[in-house]
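Sample intake sheet
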Amino acid sequence: MSQPRESLGSTLGYRLIDVLKIQLKAELNIENNNGTTVRMDIKKYAIAG
C-alpha cells in the first residue's frame, strides 16, 4: 500500500473496501500516480452453486 492505512481508513468507501478485503482474505494495494489505482488480489474463492 502506497499510503499509510491510517490516512485512508476514515472514509466510508475505504472502510467498505477494507471489510470486503478481510472477508475475501485478499491483499489490497492502493497506488496514487497521476490518479488512484486500487487492486485487490483474491487468492482463493469458491463459486456458489
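Comment: The chain is about 35% helix and 30% strand. The chain has a mean pLDDT of 81.
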